[in-house]
Design goal:
Largest sheet: 7 strands, mixed
Strand content: over 45%
Structural class: mainly beta
Number of helices: 0
Oligomer: single chain
Radius of gyration: 13 Å
Helix content: under 10%
């Protein structure tokens, strides 16, 4: 069993930055990902990182602006978000891949980007 808690969301102006954190408890050496869900839209994949941190990938709309990373010693996943745009506004959720599907989810943290 894994419990995930996100933090770091907030209100920021377009062009600003935020760093999201996701603290995990329980067994944590899994591949992990960040997703987001905007009002009235389906949940969308944002970024993935392997358990070792060596492999990452991103949805096209965030490439070059967002960076996913992890600190396994702290059981924490991060998402550094730079040059934020109003279309990045959403609830951001972290998830654990176990091992082929994302089975464990956090409750989410709200990111709002004003124009």
């Amino acid at each position: 069993q894994v419990q995930l808690v996100e933090s770091g969301g907030g209100l920021v102006q377009a062009g600003g930055s935020l760093r999201l954190s996701c603290t995990a408890s329980g067994r944590t050496l899994y591949d992990m990902g960040w997703f987001r869900q905007a009002p009235g839209k389906e949940r969308e994949f944002v970024a993935y990182i392997s358990w070792s941190g060596y492999r990452t990938n991103y949805t096209d709309s965030v490439k070059g602006r967002f960076t996913i990373s992890r600190d396994n010693a702290k059981n924490t996943l991060y998402l550094q978000m730079n040059n934020l745009k109003p279309e990045d506004t959403a609830v951001y959720l972290c998830a654990v891949k176990n091992p082929y599907t994302y089975d464990y989810w956090g409750q989410g943290t709200q990111v709002t980007v004003s124009s």
